[in-house]
Each structure stands twice: as structure tokens, then as C-alpha cells.
Design a protein that fits this description.
Elements: E1 4-10, H1 14-25, E2 30-34, H2 60-73, E3 77-80, E4 83-87, E5 93-97, E6 100-109, E7 113-115, H3 123-126, E8 131-132, H4 135-138, E9 146-150, H5 154-164, E10 169-173, H6 183-191, E11 195-198, E12 201-207, E13 214-219, E14 225-229, E15 232-235, E16 239-241, E17 271-273, H7 285-304
Parallel strand pairs: 1-2, 1-6, 2-3, 6-17, 8-15, 9-10, 9-15, 10-11
Antiparallel strand pairs: 4-5, 5-6, 7-16, 12-13, 13-14
Helix pairs in contact: 1-2, 1-7, 5-6
The structure holds NADP nicotinamide-adenine-dinucleotide phosphate.
NADP nicotinamide-adenine-dinucleotide phosphate is lined by residues 150-156, 158, 175-176, 180, 237-239.
Length: 306
């Protein structure tokens, strides 16, 4: 029998499960369609120290599982399946998955975004072992230590400035001879006493046994190689939102994020975007859960008007 949910949530990260929690508590029928396991990117984080309510921090995997259990306590269902195709325009939105068709009166996009990797061998191995993609999440581990930030955009510069307040020394490694970041940051960085630059340099190799101990750099013009001893490395070379399924159906910005404001409403009625996948200034767990609550609130109003 064809079952039509009040809400289908695509992606089981913090934004998705918060939307499910709020919607289920409001009496809506909800299914979360998740490919792997709860938590999204958060599940890959060893210790989450900046989500309020956990004075000792909590590992991201457990936090994701807790969010799932909390939403399920109020009736939200989790379906482990891969979403293959969507038709978001009709009032009954159709979602084709590896396990068959699902229909929803509303759809919440919570598919997230992943940090762009350097693409080096051993990158997966060193991730969390000295190699990181989120300064706000993992920077505190490097109090008084020496770290590098890879990249030259606004994110890299913002990461370098926040790390400079924690670490003893921050080295920005950039493949060009000038920053792409907004000009206003340049002088602040150049003035910072503990920030150094390695211009025209690419990371050629990640060095270390068991844990990252440094990087091999290659000068992009001369090909000359050099090594840096480091306690940690933060990769900040952009992010890739998971929006392939939304292309052609929802308005995306020039970087492929779903265009949606604070109320998470997208260009299509009844479709909401929450968490890292939507256009926003700060991509954090707390902002994702805030989006989730907002999406459920908006969906309730939309359904009431149907
Ligand atoms: P971005 O602007 O695309 O910058 C990415 C940086 O990484 C560039 O410097 C790029 O080098 C470098 N890069 C890309 N691929 C690389 C690779 N494979 N190896 C080495 N370096 C590589 O990305 P973003 O900094 O994440 O910013 C994304 C958006 O968010 C931007 O619109 C930005 O303005 C915005 N943002 C704003 C703020 C703020 O307003 N405070 C803070 C953060 C982000 P090239 O320069 O050579 O291309």
C-alpha cells in the first residue's frame, strides 16, 4: 500500500534528526532516509566539545545515535537506504530509493557537505590523528603547539586566526603567492606575531608513523621540496555540498549549496534545507539543529494550509 508521510527527511545528521524530532513531537508522521548511520559528518568527530550540555564533551558517533533514539522515541522512523532520485514538485513528493518508493507531503534536505580532501595517500589514515578539517572542532587540542593551515580562502584565514589564539605557531600553506580571502583579513594575518606563510606551496606528502608529524611541501614553480615538522594540520580548501539530487529542482548558489534562509524554506513549497547543505555563514552542529527545529515549524504551517 502506498504510504504518504507528512515529512521525509533525507540525511540523518543533527539537522535531519532534529527536524524529525520536532515534527514527530508535533504529531507528524516522519521517516528519516539515511544511507549509513546516524550523525553524518559529526559521527566522524572523535570528541565534540562545542555542543552545549556535555561538560566533558561527547564523541560524535554517540551524539548522532542519541539524536536518532530521541527522535524515534516520539515515533520517527529510520530507514537505512540510499536515495537515488527525487521528484519534489508535486504535492506528494516522490523519493526513489534502493529499497523502493517513498512519498512525503514535505521533504527536508539534510544531506550535508563534506570538506574537500587534499587527495593524498594516507589522508584517511591520518584524519583525526593530527590531520583535521574543522578548526572550530579540533583546534583546542593544539594549545601551545605548532600547526599548519592549508588553503588561502576565507575559511583558511578564519581558521588560521582562531588557531593563532590557541597554538604557539600557525603556518599558512597556500598554492599561490597571494590569498584569495577577503582583503580585510590580510593585514590582520600579516600583523599576527605567530602566523607565518609558505607561499606557492602544495602539500606533496603527509609524514609520520601512526600519527601525523609533519608535511612535505613542493614549490609549485621550482618543484623544490622541503619538510615542515608539525603537531597538527588543518585542511581548509573548501567544502562540497551533497546536492546532486537537488540539481534542476531547487535553486542552488554558485557553489551548489541549496539557497534557503533562516527559515530553511527552499525555492519549492514544502521543501526545506537544513544544516551544512544550505546557504549560511556558520556550519556547526548547533546551527544545524536550529535549522531542524525551524524546518519542522515551517512544515507544520505548510501542512496546516494544505
Ligand atoms: P574557497 O573560497 O573556495 O577557497 C578555497 C581555497 O583553497 C583557495 O585558496 C584555493 O586555492 C585552495 N584550494 C582549493 N583546492 C585546493 C587544493 N586541492 N590544494 C590546495 N589548495 C586548494 O573556499 P572557503 O575558504 O571554504 O570559502 C567558501 C565560501 O565561504 C567563500 O565564498 C567564502 O567567502 C565564504 N566564507 C566566508 C567567511 C567570512 O565571511 N568570514 C568565512 C569562511 C568562508 P586558490 O586560491 O588557488 O584557488
Amino acid at each position: 500500500m502506498k504510504r504518504i508521510y507528512d515529512m521525509l527527511v533525507i540525511g540523518g545528521g543533527p539537522g535531519g534528526y532534529t527536524a524529525a524530532l520536532y515534527a514527530a513531537r508535533a504529531g507528524l508522521s516522519v521517516a528519516v532516509l539515511e544511507k549509513l548511520s546516524a550523525g553524518g559528518q559529526m559521527a566522524l568527530t572523535d570528541t565534540v566539545d562545542n555542543y552545549p550540555g556535555f561538560p566533558e564533551g561527547i564523541d560524535g558517533f554517540s551524539l548522532g545515535e542519541n539524536m536518532q533514539l530521541q527522535a524515534e522515541r516520539f515515533g520517527a522512523e529510520t530507514v537505512l537506504t540510499e536515495v537515488l532520485e527525487l521528484d519534489l514538485s508535486p504535492a506528494e513528493k516522490a523519493v526513489r530509493t534502493s529499497d523502493g518508493m517513498f512519498w512525503g507531503k514535505t521533504v527536508v534536505f539534510a544531506t550535508g557537505a563534506s570538506p574537500r580532501p587534499l587527495g593524498l595517500p594516507n589522508e584517511d589514515f591520518f584524519t583525526g590523528r593530527g590531520l583535521h578539517y574543522c578548526a572550530a572542532c579540533d583546534g583546542m587540542r593544539y594549545k601551545g603547539k605548532t600547526v599548519a593551515v592549508i588553503g588561502g580562502g576565507d575559511s583558511a584565514v578564519a581558521d588560521a586566526l582562531s588557531l593563532a589564539r590557541i597554538a604557539e605557531k600557525v603556518i599558512i600553506v597556500h598554492r599561490r603567492d597571494t590569498l584569495r580571502a577577503t582583503k580585510v583579513y590580510h593585514q590582520t594575518l600579516l600583523d599576527a606575531p605567530n602566523v607565518e606563510f609558505r607561499w606557492n606551496s602544495e602539500v606533496a606528502e603527509l609524514l609520520g608513523q601512526g600519527k601525523l608529524a609533519g608535511i612535505k611541501l613542493k614549490h609549485v614553480q621550482t618543484g623544490e621540496e622541503s619538510e615542515l615538522d608539525l603537531d597538527g594540520v588543518f585542511v581548509s580548501i573548501g567544502r562540497e555540498p551533497a546536492t546532486a539530487l537537488a540539481k534542476g529542482q531547487l535553486e542552488l548558489d554558485e557553489r551548489d549549496y541549496i539557497v534557503a534562509g533562516e527559515n530553511t524554506a527552499t525555492s519549492l513549497p514544502g521543501v526545506y534545507a537544513v544544516g551544512d547543505v544550505r546557504t549560511k555563514a556558520l556550519r556547526q552542529i548547533v546551527t544545524a539543529v536550529s535549522d531542524g527545529a525551524y524546518a519542522a515549524h515551517e512544515a507544520e504551517h505548510y501542512l496546516a494550509g494544505q
